[in-house]
């Protein structure tokens, strides 16, 4: 039985830390002994750039190439186009060509399953696959939700960001009901948190109280720090940039929580509980 878990990092609002979370959670899982593939599903290529792909638009093979090949029934090897990064993760990069693929998907049979077809082929090589989703309501994030086993929802403790959470929950219910009944939400992750402000503490507490009985909110919160931007500029994870900082500690704790969720799920499956 394939034990790889596919997690979509998704919020339909931009600027919530999806790419940063995908990168640092991915590296955290590698440091825990896991084999990890990161999939950049955003045409802006932010995750690819953060991993050192300085000119993604000049790449010969990207996610757009792979998805186009699937739509045209062209075979390719498992490692086709993958970049093996210094910090141990593999990357399927992205660039602006993915926007054209999104348009082409609308005229494709079984258009929601194209990314799943690719990930089902390569998942045998990994313990975790993390998808950095585009911040939209389009067919690309739907592809991610159809391919995924679960979702992590990064959200700033701001009112507008929590509106994005409402939109995502609506989309999640539609996908779960109609296409992927096994899809689950691992939890909401608060990012860019300034614990000194009354607003951030109030929003986090309100969300915990309103969602806590029906939806997991991670105990870990990711603090706001200029070191995140500095690490991205250096094309490094926060662990490589400054392993002793508070953000690195937070992503270590998040990694532990993600591993604990999977361990609990395995126990439930062994006991025959869904």
What does this protein look like?
- The protein has 274 residues and is of the alpha/beta class.
- Helices cover 46% and strands 16% of the residues.
- The protein has an 8-stranded mixed β-sheet, sandwiched between helices.
- Helix 3 packs parallel to helix 4, helix 3 packs across helix 5 and helix 5 runs parallel beside helix 6.
- The protein is globular and about 55 Å long.
- The two termini are 17 Å apart.
- The model has no long low-confidence stretch (mean pLDDT 91).
In short:
With 274 residues, the protein is an alpha/beta fold.
Low-confidence stretches: none
Termini gap: 17 Å
How much of the residues is beta strand, in percent? 15-25%
Query: How are strands sequenced across the largest beta sheet?
Result: 3-4-2-5-1-6-7-8
Query: Which structural class fits the helix and strand makeup?
Result: alpha/beta
The SSE order reads EHEHHEEHHEHEHEHEHHH
Mean pLDDT over the full residue set: 91
Output the number of helix runs: 11
Percent of residues in helices: 40-55%
The radius of gyration is 18 Å
Question: Looking at the structure, what is the overall shape?
Answer: globular
- What is the β-strand count? 8
Based on the model shown, name its key terms:
alpha/beta; 11 helices; 274 residues
How would you summarize the topology of this molecule?
Elements: E1 5-9, H1 18-31, E2 36-41, H2 46-50, H3 63-71, E3 83-84, E4 90-92, H4 97-105, H5 114-122, E5 128-133, H6 139-147, E6 150-155, H7 159-178, E7 184-193, H8 198-211, E8 217-223, H9 226-233, H10 238-241, H11 246-270
Parallel strand pairs: 1-5, 1-6, 2-4, 2-5, 6-7, 7-8
Antiparallel strand pairs: 3-4
Helix pairs in contact: 1-11, 3-4, 3-5, 5-6
């Amino acid at each position: 039985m394939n034990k790889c878990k596919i997690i979509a990092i998704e919020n339909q609002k931009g600027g919530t830390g999806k790419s940063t979370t995908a990168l640092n959670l991915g590296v955290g899982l590698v440091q825990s002994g896991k084999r990890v593939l990161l999939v950049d599903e955003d045409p802006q290529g932010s995750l690819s750039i953060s991993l050192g792909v300085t000119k993604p638009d000049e790449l010969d093979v990207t996610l757009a190439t792979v998805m186009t090949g699937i739509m045209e029934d062209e075979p390719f090897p498992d490692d086709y186009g993958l970049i093996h990064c210094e910090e141990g993760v593999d990357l399927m990069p992205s660039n602006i060509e993915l926007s054209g693929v999104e348009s082409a998907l609308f005229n494709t049979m079984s258009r929601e399953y194209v990314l799943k077809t690719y990930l089902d082929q390569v998942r045998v090589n990994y313990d975790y696959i993390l998808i950095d989703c585009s911040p939209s309501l389009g067919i690309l994030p739907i592809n991610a939700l159809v391919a995924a086993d679960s979702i992590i929802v990064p959200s700033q403790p701001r009112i507008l960001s929590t509106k994005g959470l409402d939109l995502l929950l609506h989309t999640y219910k539609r996908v779960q009901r109609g296409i992927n009944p096994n899809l689950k939400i691992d939890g909401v992750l608060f990012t860019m948190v300034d614990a000194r402000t009354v607003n951030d503490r109030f929003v986090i507490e309100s969300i915990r109280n309103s969602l806590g009985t029906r939806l997991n909110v991670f105990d870990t919160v990711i603090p706001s720090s200029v070191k995140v931007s500095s690490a991205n500029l250096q094309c490094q994870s926060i662990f490589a940039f400054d392993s002793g900082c508070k953000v690195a500690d937070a992503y270590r704790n998040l990694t532990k929580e993600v591993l604990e969720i999977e361990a609990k799920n395995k126990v439930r499956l062994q006991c025959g509980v869904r």
